[in-house]
Amino acid sequence: MADGGIQGMHWYVPAQLAGVAGLPTTERGVHKQAEREGWMKRRRLRGKGWEYAFDSLPQQARDDIGRRAALSKTQALASDAFAQGNQLSRKLAIAAKVDGAVQKRTRETGLASAAALTGKSRERMDAKLALLALLATFAHNRQLGICAAMAEFCDAYNSGELTVPITVRMHTGAALAPRTLRRWRHLNKTQGPAALAGGYGNRAGTGVLDTAPQLHDFTIGLIADKPHISAKLVFEALQARFAERDDLPKLRTVQDWLARWKRDNAEVLLAVANPDAWKNRYMSGFGSLSESVTRACQLWMLDSTPADLQLVDGRYNLVGVIDVAWRGFRLHVCKTSSAEAVTQVMRRAIIEWGVPEAIKVDNGRDYASQRVGSMLTALHIDARFSAPFSPWEKGNIERAFRTFSHSLLELLPGYSGHNVAEAQALRAGKSFAERLFKKNEVIELKLTAAELQAFCDDWCRHYYEHEKHEGLGCTPFERYAQLRDVVNRIGDVRALDLLLGGGAMRRVTKKGLRIDNLVYIAPELASVVGQDVLVRQDDGDLGRIVVYHGEQFLCIAECPEVAGVSRREIAIEGKARQAAAMQQKKRELKALGRKANTADLARDILDHKARQNASLGTLPAPNVVHLTPAIEAAGDAADALEQYEAGTQAPPAEPVTLDHLANLRDAMRGEQAQDETAEDRFRRALRSLMKPEGERDDIERRFLRNHLTSAEFLGRWTMFEDFGPSAFGLPDEFAALLPDGAAFDRLSRAQQGEP
User: Does residue 237 have a pLDDT over 70?
Assistant: First the structure.
């Protein structure tokens, strides 16, 4: 007989049976005996011919096959090869366990990184997570595995048959291939959702000024020593100091790099350039269906109340979650049942209970939203949607809500209808529970949202969990104590900050972070005063916010008035941290400044310019001797005096007058001025400016009035401002003429011709 439908039997081909005790020694002989005795047979699963059931063989043959199998197993256990294989297997099991732990930490790191993403990076990540969530739903609806459904899913996506939000297609492209989906799923599984954001736009910090340590340290040293130095002077300093290099940046590159560095290091730059201004601007001032569910976190159910609760501070809804295994129940008070509310209640439950394997929800927009789908995909949680108009599929959460509505809530003060008609309905016997589960109903409670949330938390933990549950046969608290299941927990709670939503950018002020008239402070905020940070807030805990800076977790900031922490202690710690960080940064900048050796930089630049211009020349310009009557008269008088002193001429008959002496003085001064260099005239002007206005003579005033507005003076004044008195061999007291010096106003007064 042939029966291929019998399962659980062992089957043998003739080649395996030949030579067994009581059977022929050839395959043909085995086949003939099987035909004679009517052995149970079936077509071979691989190859041609028949194979025969063990139970239909003669007893002698079955005994021999059993002895051979036992002997083979004993020999294998005793062999060296078995021992080596067994040892390798144990090693591989240990390695797999370690790899699993490493992979789990990598995923959590990816979740924490994903929580800090903003802008285009977050949009790309959310779009890919949403598409992976659509793939899971697509496979579930067609009762296919994820991999088996990929090709069909891509065809539906590429043809437009699949409805995908335009915001998702913008980042996932017009066409999709299965290998792309497999790569995304692998990245999300091994590295977390942050790996789906890509690495676009990350060229910052790859220029020569960032990658060449010698150029980078020299430039930073320049800035440390000369905080107000211009990009042009930095460019010229690099050209002068590193003339032998052929990879020096262009002027535009230096300008862009310097602007970016000053923007990213505005606080420390101001601390070096103007400590008093830094204190005023940045120094912190914080002072003032459940038979198959046998494991905890195996299945959760979530639902929301259809009716609205009219509270003292507005209308609200309730969103609930229940662990089906032990009936753990939590409620979240929210403005409306939205994706935001769903992620909030999920986050609170995950922190307390662990990560669920699957959740059961309905097909409402809040539960089937892109954000919830992305969150479930990122955390590897299976989403199970109930059929439309089938509330019994979520019977556990429905019963928990009704227990809540029939319980202590009706005893709360101020419980009444929303208007006269509804109050009359209450008096007519219409129960609160009936109205809570009726859409568009409004129930009034004289409580605030915070008071109702506190009541819900106390009711779930201290009342519901200690009441005997009919389906459990004990209380939820006792059932939870009996469970010894391994639950996946998030080792780094910051990884769950992804569930808080996109967050908002806020600027840190001297007082902290102000959000909705509440001020949040933390010692770590002192290091980022004046900078923008990403803030995420848990609606269930208004006293704390999560803060990120530079796509990295920074701190948990608290509002002292709400959280009850000491403002004074945080203020002291914040100032201490800020002072230590600033001192360290200032020490590093000053060390680079000394290393850059900027004392001779002005001379290096001038020498470099001189070498560049050494080969240049001009044709001699036509010139004539410049003579005036005064110069001629002075010359005649000088010749006469020389002849008289030599005894070759008698004294002049005409007496020497003051006019003669004045003419001679002016002529000599003119000759002296022709011997002065531009640097000499610049130093003479500075020495005159150092004198008070009342101590200058008419010649000095006239010289300053003409010289201070010349291009010769103004060009050297710019270098004087950048490099100080030492660039022109002047003592340090000449620094009083700089813009922040006590005598700076003398320059503008002299330029205007004021006495």
Answer: yes
Distances from the Cα of 223 to the Cαs of 209, 589, 592, 632, 723, in angstroms? 13, 8, 9, 56, 12
Residue 453 lies in a domain: yes
- Domain boundary among the residues 442, 465, 488 is at 465
Whole-Å CA distances, 92 to 76, 79, 166: 20, 20, 46
Q: Domain of 24: which CATH number?
A: 1.10.10.10
Same domain for 284 and 382, yes or no, is no
Between these two residues, 43 and 92, which has the higher pLDDT value? Answer: 43
Whether residue 321 sits in one domain with residue 275: no
Last residue of a domain, one of 398, 432, 465: 465
- Asked whether residue 280 falls in the same domain as residue 308, the answer is no
> 603 is written with which tokens?
């001379």
Instruction: Examine residue 543 and state whether it is found in any structural domain, yes or no.
Output: yes
Taking the C-alpha atoms of residue 352 and residue 331, their distance in angstroms, rounded to an integer, is 13
Q: How many domains does the chain have?
A: 6
pLDDT at position 193 over 70: yes
Mark whether 272 and 421 lie in a shared domain.
no
- SS3 state at 250: coil
Please tell me the distance from the alpha carbon of residue 52 to that of residue 44, in angstroms, as a whole number.
9
Q: Are residues 122 and 173 in the same domain?
A: yes
**Adjacency order of strands within the sheet including 552-558:** 504-507, 532-537, 544-549, 552-558
Domain shared by 701 and 666, yes or no:
no
For residues 632 and 587, what is the distance between their CA atoms, to the nearest angstrom? Answer: 65
DSSP 459: I
Cβ neighbours of 627 (radius 10 Å) = 9
Give Cα separations from 573 to 521, 527, 550, 569, 580 (angstroms): 11, 11, 22, 6, 11
312 lies in some domain: yes
Q: List the domain range (segments joined by +) for residue 70.
A: 11-78
C-alpha to C-alpha distance for 747 and 51, rounded to whole angstroms: 111
The answer to whether 682 and 606 have CB atoms below 8 angstroms apart is no
Q: Are the C-beta atoms of 303 and 362 separated by less than 8 Å?
A: yes
3-state secondary structure of 563: helix
**431: CATH:** 3.30.420.10
Residue in the block written with tokens 């000024």: 209
Quick check: helix, strand or coil at residue 361? strand
For 205: left if phi > 0, alpha if psi spans -120 to 50, otherwise beta; the answer is left
- Do 330 and 450 have their domain in common? yes
DSSP 3-state assignment of 102? helix
**Is the distance from CB of 600 to CB of 723 less than 8 angstroms?**
no
The structure tokens 């590429």 sit at 158
Residue 358, pLDDT above cutoff 80: yes
Q: 461 in a domain, yes or no?
A: yes
Instruction: Please report the pLDDT score of residue 575 as a whole number.
Output: 75
Confidence of residue 329 (pLDDT cuts 50, 70, 90): very high
Find out whether 570 and 521 touch, Cβ atoms under 8 Å.
Answer: yes
Chain segment 385-429, per-residue pLDDT in tens: 877 766 677 788 888 888 887 765 656 655 554 444 445 544 444
Given a contact cutoff of 8 angstroms between Cβ atoms, the answer to whether 344 and 356 are in contact is no
Q: Are residues 457 and 329 located together in one domain of the fold?
A: yes
